[in-house]
Amino acid sequence: MTDTTVQTSASGRPLADPSKPLVQVKDLEVTFKTGTGDVHAVRGVSFDIYPGETVAIVGESGSGKSTTATALIKLLAGNGRISGGKVLVEGKDITGYSERQMASVRGGVIGYVPQDPMSNLNPVWSVGFQVREAIRANGVASGRKDIQAKAIEVLQQAGLADAERRMEQYPHQFSGGMRQRVLIGIGLGADPKLLIADEPTSALDVTVQKVILDHLESLTRELNTALLLITHDLGLAAERASKLIVMHRGRIVESGDSLEILQHPQHPYTKQLIAAAPSLASRRIHSSTGAAVTEGVDAIDMLKLAVKHEDTEAVIEAAPVMVSVKDLRKTYSIRRGGFKSEPLHAVDGISFEIHKGTTLALVGESGSGKSTAARLVLGLEPPTEGEIVVGGQNMAGASAKQLFDLRRRMQVVFQDPYASLDPQRSIGAIIAEPLKVHGVGDRVSRHARVEELLEQVALPTELAHRYPNELSGGQRQRVAIARALALKPEVVVLDEAVSALDVLVQAQILQLLADLQEELGLTYLFITHDLAVVRVVADAVAVMEQGKIVEAGPTDEIFENAQQPYTQRLLDAIPGAGIEFGN
Amino acid sequence: MSERTTEHYVAPVDPDEKVEVDRVKLSERKSNLWLDAWRDLRRRPLFYIAMSIVLVVVVAALFPSLFTDVLPNNDCFLENSNAGPAEGHPLGFTRQGCDVYSRIVYGASTSLSVGLLVVAITAAIGIPMGAIAGFYGGWVDSLLSRVGDIFFSIPYFLAAVVVMSVLSAHRNVFVISLAIGGFAWASLARILRAEVLQVKNLEYVMASEAVGRGRFSTLLRHVLPNSLTPVIVYLTIALGAAITAEATLSFLGIGLPNTIMSWGNDIAQAQTSIRVAPMALFWPSLALTITVLAFIVLGELIRDALDPKARARR
Which end of chain A is more exposed for a tag (fewer CB within 10 A), N or C? Predict the structure, then answer.
């Protein structure tokens, strides 16, 4: 701030000196004490945030990105502490601050938007109460009326329509996007100079994510608030932030101008990340120069995966139909108090075909009915109406025996690798379970098959005697794939099978799935919310909205020439969609 | 901001550090829930203390002659009534002139049998009721849960008092265990049902069904083993509580008949001469307290060991 001319922002607050950093982090070290010794989560991290600037920290889980963010406001978990370095907020080192001193920093100088909108609002208090509480705590306003007025203003600012009425409602009456708006409102309630947003939209649908981020961006620009965005999504980070910090294993591996890093990454890890990010691959498909990004790095390139699918379009039509679904309907009745009930059309008359050896992606946001459709195809639930034919076998008229046999030909991989493997069974037993249930082979031959399958998914065979808790998410997903392949199925349903994985691991699994498809002639039904992934894995796409398929066709056609506004909206919402790769 | 240029920082690349994605890192030792729990228990001194008390009680129950040569109901001479310790009788005598130490040793088998029987009965009714109610849901759940609620609403101790009074002609270890266990299973069923409700929605259960495994088989193979943690903890603690319940019923005179050696009976009889010979009351009470405490502590230790979060906190 200079004493001669005082600029003011839209909010009437004097503008901070843009040439002086707002927050300076110097050689930050964070250590967590655990039962097995100290864990150094953040090791020698340094960066600056200037007033009004948007900085993104990108990294995989365990990279220390969230820990760095929480260290800035000293909200580390109980067993964590800042073990070295400095955090200067407006020139003052806060590492030695007491809880009381920190209270003046939190909220007022640095606001915080937590990750999960579903669990970060207290369900027993009204939304308005929680906003008012934050405002009172930050001392922005005093007196019932002023606080109420400020709360309404904050919520309106956060984009909550009809704020005055909705304030007295409770969190469960709000959708995920609405809750996130409330949290952003609380974070911005005291006009902080820096807002930390920790994965603010990763729990939300892409279209909602885009709206929320757009809003956050315009809001912080208007108030001249600096924004520290923590995310796992490189595309999203590059699109939203001017400065990018890439973290890996507690260290910064590369930082600088976003576009510069995307186009000319230097560090091998950054190169790997960019190559593996499906959202960026979708962009790079249109540009030839983008391909140069990963030169000289031993990495799985999404671009190559995508290109493979581009050539096969002619082959698709020639292949016989493996799965055929006609006018499939599933209606649930929802109780509405008393003895009344209302029908809910979860799947509302969908039809599609999948040709042998190809991949159909069923895309939709939460509540679109895509997972219900998968359950119907798998025969885990009976359809209300419609026909499902798998490999010539109509499921509707099938006897119990025929259905049981059909299970051999159709297998599934679920989303959450931490929930899809029984923790009390060894990996070998898990993979052998389908063989055992179907009475295939004896003990010896089953064991041989388990080893063969482990090799197929590139896992060491000695894993057979180990338990799932020793494996990472990606490795567990490999085990789940091995289990799905045990009976040599023809069709594999992949229900959000890569959604829970970090990008590098996701890329690896996608590559594995592609290899297995080619090797074994598998037919995939790929259920996902992530259009970016679709681009690299699917031959054909069907977009679902509210139980109906709104648009379907070959992947390239949909991506280049979407007819429906909904599809277009989904495509625009892919993070990184606005990045120009060609220049 | 425009005049400020952002420096492009690149960390030095360590050529030795080959970035291999998602490498399988296996520790030397195998690890799973039960192994980890066992390793955790082995490191805790309290576990050894509780375990040795339990072991002593078990050995005393099975082979009382290892601990004493004196038979509890023979050699009772009224001239020894309420006498203090003597040669070969370290804890003195009861009012009837019987050896206190010997009666405690022989009483262990009753306490332990009642404890184990009650736990077996509780488990035999509670586990199927809770597991089936939770897993199948719908009307099955409503029916079984309401039955459970009926039993839950009757204080099991009161019920046991009534049953034992009615069956006064048939008082023995089995009847008293049935009277306690027959009314105590409802809380176990509730605990298990809640756990099953949570486990049955996990994807590995769905995965098992997608493979073609039947519903009941899935319940036995996947759901039940993964819901057993709270059951084990509950049963260990229930064992201690059952021993107390038997002692209380016997103390009230509606438990086991005098002919069966039992800590509860001894406490009841010693009560009449508490002013002259308090130690005859003290020793069986101490045996009871220590045994029950050992089982409860064991239950708590097992609960901590089976909960990875509790392990991490320590």
Answer: C
Domain boundaries, chain B: 33-313
ipTM of the complex: 0.77
The fold adopted by the segment(s) A23-264 is Rossmann fold (3.40.50)
Residue A416 with chain B: CB contacts under 8 Å:
203
CB contact under 8 A, A437 and B212: yes
Q: B27 contacts in A (CB within 8 Å)?
A: 470
Give the C-alpha distances (Å, rounded to integers) separating A322 from A12, A328, A523, A541, B189: 65, 16, 7, 16, 46
The gap between the terminal CA atoms of chain B, to the nearest Å, is 49
Check: CB of residue A378 under 8 Å from CB of residue A410: yes
Whether chain B has a CB inside 8 Å of the CB on A48: the answer is no
* Strand blocks (E) in A391-463: 393-394, 410-413
Q: Does residue B250 have a pLDDT over 50?
A: yes
Is A459–B24 a contact, with Cβ atoms under 8 angstroms apart? Answer: yes
Length of chain A: 583
Residue A467 has pLDDT above 60, yes or no: yes
Least-confidence region, from A77-91, A270-284, B180-194, B300-314: B300-314
Q: Tell me: the pLDDT tens digits for A287-333? A: 544 445 555 556 677 777 776 665 555 666 778 889 999 999 999 88
Name the residue of chain A whose CA is nearest to B213's CA: A437
Quick check: B31 contacting A, CB < 8 Å? yes
A261 near B CB under 8 A: yes
Confidence of residue A1 (pLDDT cuts 50, 70, 90): very low
Q: What is the CATH number of domain B33-313?
A: 1.10.3720.10
Query: Count of A–B CB contacts within 8 Å?
Result: 136
| Distance to chain A for B31, nearest Cα, Å | 7
Mutate to test the interface with B, among A38, A298, A422 (most CBs of B within 10 A): A422
Fold for domain A300-391+490-576? Rossmann fold (3.40.50)
Residues 6+ apart with CB under 8 A from B280: B82, B92, B93, B94, B95, B100, B266, B270, B273
Task: Give the residue range(s) of CATH 3.40.50.300 domains in chain A.
Answer: 23-264, 300-391+490-576
Confidence (pTM): 0.82
A15 pLDDT more than 80: no
